Amino acid sequence: MGRGLVRRLAKAGRRVMVADQHADRAEQVAAEAGADQPGTASGVPEEQALAADIVVLALWYPATVEFATANQSALAGKIVVDISNPLDESFTGLSLPPTTSGAEELAAALPNSRVVKAFNTVPAPTLFTGEVGGTTLDTFVAADDADAKAAVMDLLRDSGLRGLDAGALANSRLLERLTAFGIELGQRYGLGFDFGVKYLPTTDLSVQALHRWLRRRRAACGPARSPYLGPRPAGRTRWW
């Protein structure tokens, strides 16, 4: 996953710092995945990577929680992106109960950080290429902090992935289960991990696009009709 993350973010023109227990491996990943991209990637010491405003943990669960617990102070005030899936030994089920998620467990370990779920539905091979069969992929972004979510959505701009607002961090439970199901389908159809998720339509689904659509609908429908449902009920002056 680390190589894919570096490639996507370097493609978006970002400066990416890569840290690993083995410094030479971090430098190798940065050099290979960041090659010939608009942005830059470099291997750095862990302390320098933790000083970034946005820290992406390319770790398996529960190593994410263990790392966060050990580095709670360094991660305080940071946006921390969780890409993990708490898969069981079969890779088609989850090791956590349906009442929580890997992202929520990470947030509990980092009470002074802003945790965002992203990238977890894109397997490592397709994260690196950014597409399957010529179709670019989506990644769902979930968080309880609106500003942190917006920062990660902005990070994805020009990365080759389309970021979709997936709502609250609790929706990570669904996103992690979706990945396990995707792996099950991949096993059944002999795809391995060469799959991804695309939400249709492929048009602009931003909040700004929704507002533009509503303005067009209101102009077309007139004041007596709802842009969604048709005739406005008698006495109704607001729709939300």
How would you explain this protein's 3D organization?
The protein is of the alpha/beta class. The protein folds into two domains: 53-199, NAD(P)-binding Rossmann-like Domain (Rossmann fold, 3-Layer(aba) Sandwich), CATH 3.40.50; 206-240, no CATH class. Helix content is 39%, strand content 16%. Strands 3-4-5-8-9 form a five-stranded mixed sheet. A two-stranded parallel ribbon has the order 1-2. The protein has a two-stranded antiparallel ribbon with strand order 6-7. Helix 1 crosses helix 2 (23-33) and helix 4 (63-70) runs parallel beside helix 6 (102-109). It starts with a helix and ends in a 9-residue tail after the last strand. Residues 236-240 have low confidence and may be disordered.
Write the layout of secondary structure elements.
Layout: H1 2-11, E1 15-18, H2 23-33, E2 40-43, H3 46-50, E3 54-57, H4 63-70, H5 72-75, E4 79-82, H6 102-109, E5 114-117, H7 124-129, E6 131-132, E7 135-136, E8 138-143, H8 146-155, E9 162-165, H9 172-188, H10 207-221, E10 225-226, E11 230-231
Parallel strand pairs: 1-2, 3-4, 4-5, 8-9
Antiparallel strand pairs: 5-8, 6-7, 10-11
Helix pairs in contact: 1-2, 4-6
